[in-house]
Amino acid sequence: MMGFKQIVATLATCLLALPALAEVKIKQVTSPGGITAWLVEDHSIPFTALELRFRGGTSLDAPGKRGAIYLMSGLLEEGAGDLMAQDYAKALEALAASFSYDTSKDTTSISARFLTENRDAAIALLRDTLHLPRFDQVAVDRVRGQVLSGLRSDAKDPNDIAGRAFSAMAYGDHPYGSDGKGTIDSVTALSRQDIIDAHGAVFTRDQLYVGAVGDIDADQLGALLDTLLGDLPDTGATIPGPATVTIPGGVTVIDFDTPQSVALFGQIGIDRDDPRFFAAYVMNQILGGGSFESRLMTEVREKRGLTYGVYSYLVPRDLAAVYMGSVASANDKMAQAVQVIRDEWRSMATKGVTEQELQDAKTYLTGAYPLRFDGNGPIASIMVGMQVQGLPIDYIATRNDKVNAVTLEDVNRLAAELMDPEGLHFIVVGRPQGLQTSN
Amino acid sequence: MIRRIAWASAVLSASWAAPTIAGEDLVSSFTLGNGMQVVVVEDHRAPVVQHMVWYRAGSADEPKGQSGVAHYLEHLLFKATDTLESGELSSTVAANGGKDNAFTSHDYTAYYQRIASDRLELMMRMESDRMVNIRLTERDITTEREVILEERNQRTDNNPRALFREQSNAVQYHNHRYGVPVIGWRHEMESLDMGDALSFYGTYYAPNNAILVVSGDVDPAEVKSLAEIYYGAIPANPDLPKRLRSKEPPQTAARRLTFKDARVAQPYVQRSYLAPERDSGAQQQAAALYLLAEILGGGTTSYLANALQFDQQIAVYTGAFYSGISLDDTTFSFLVVPSEGVTLQQAEDALDQTYTDFLEDGVDAEQLDRIKLQLRASEIYARDNVDGIANRYGRALTSGLTVADVQAWPGILQAVTAEQIIAIAKQVLRPEVSVTGWLMRDEEIIQ
Fold it and tell me: In chain B, what residues touch A47 (CB-CB under 8 Å)?
């Protein structure tokens, strides 16, 4: 299917403070064993979505073991307890439950979905997955082969090439500066023991956040949490310190023989707990926040037909904040697209936004937020995100007020302080005519 | 271990003696006086609505030489109408806190908005307006043509897998428009003009060729009265053509292709077979093909994964795919991504041998039971996403199926036997109707 507008789901959704519907009633539950979770009860459909998140993510990789946590998370579905990989998969199928695993720079997550009628059996299997993963050598080698295949593909994907170059430039030797999937060499060298060590580094109670939504009450959830998570170790690996962000203004061209150039651009960003964050969030909505009406979409796509999609997004990670964007444009048009984007960056810094733009952005942002709460799984994920970000349990009720409180002066002062057209760096992968590496 | 599985299955089976489709009790449908069909799927958990209009017109309905015009027109429907400025529909949706989008496929074009449920009337007013009232300028035509060419760059020309798929698909169909990409061939896209777009619009955009699908926090009676006001007022197009497409002749020669590109990092083998689609009132063959794909290549416990990824370890990934919702003949396909050091010839030979073994072994009864059980559970999980159910109806009703067909489908799947699955495999997966393709690195030497 052809989509009219590409949706930038990747970063734009997770970094934003998580808004919500006033009707979403979150309860804090503390299990008898002392594990806390946020719960939304909804008994209309007989299943529960459970979201577990462990802070640290791939940034917890031990020195020289890049890719260990990513590979470990891929191995969780490859057998546990007495069940080797295929028997484990059959057991999961027979429960009609699903467990999925993901790991990012900041968190490792487990998303589970299970029916009410066999909830105990599903939790018993998930407990084995967390506590008794097999990490059989044959499975390690098989999944390693899949990871290496992915890494080889990434090496020839212009978007991945741009992403890796940007991270390396911005974060240097910090874990943020390299791909959490590892390199061909580092992944090839990982041993079974490295995987076991990675497991011990990640799944600990001090880094755990829990959200549950669906057909389960507080007592049932409390008992479930103790069964599932009570025996996890208290602590694991130490989370690294903040990254120093270094982004010199300019352009880097990476030669790649393909008809359409791909660009990632960015500058220093703004932290999620900065008091100016909401002003920045509203400003970004106006500049390139993914809607069709943004300035970047209007100037680069609608007026000039230079691209199918152009976006900007705030990336306030735990250990560093950047402000980024992306665009793809034919090799003979990319130079013009870069110029238009840089001009828009400068215009935002010097002229700010209009009252009408501010009002439109606010109506959109405050009106769109209930649309996110569209199912048990998404709500569980949002609640965990709120906890990881340190937001209060009543945040949902106050989030729109924070958006509405942003004034024209707030946005324009922030724009003047944050927007750095000279410090904006473009990584361009392709054969863009008329663009050269600048320094 | 085995006992636990058996126990779990028994519990589930007992409690779902009569499988029902997700939300069936929440689905209502009716037809307006001008022939526009309406489907409503209720979910009152959140005050949100999804409003969609689906047209029975996709890229396979395009005139010869104008490939991509259906999708091009989809873009142009966001420009001005008699009462809306260019871009005003989207900006109005956004100003009301909603999101809008559209998509085009071989058999349909669909437009939708997700928004607070009390804005449904505004959505209907704007969507019904652009069904018949667009006003395009030459500037729209020129600029938006650049945009779709950049979209083709992004989706296809920058991606060797997409280019390979496009070539392979073109070889699969001798005579049917499914062989032409939805986005269009570049040389034809470059010449699309105002006349092409308006001709397609005038021919196909009419209430008697459209389906309204509304899901979420709505009352069907209210949807009906609003739909009568906004869509019911538009006259039917009496000249709407029948969807008569050129049919495939008998396919009598197995075809092969190799696609080489320096940007390929991971070579693979893909094979597709021309296969029957879900037909109204006759979905049994399609149901058997759906289960065949699940059994052969539906994940870790599938026959191909077991043989090629676990036993022989010659593949990093295997899969089998069948998409039954289609107006005309569709495809059943295999994908094998070889492990490092395994050639494409070895991978293809292993696929052939494994499939031959499967026909001899027959269907594993326990595996079939597990798949059917998961299908029943999926109907429970589907109730958590009524927009997904709504999409199901939209795709089916633009692809020759009826509401009754959609609701019968889960029961038909449950009734399929192991013998029927083997029979359909032997009937459909014949070399004469197949296309085998190798995606290769530039420097690779054909074995």
Answer: 380-381, 384
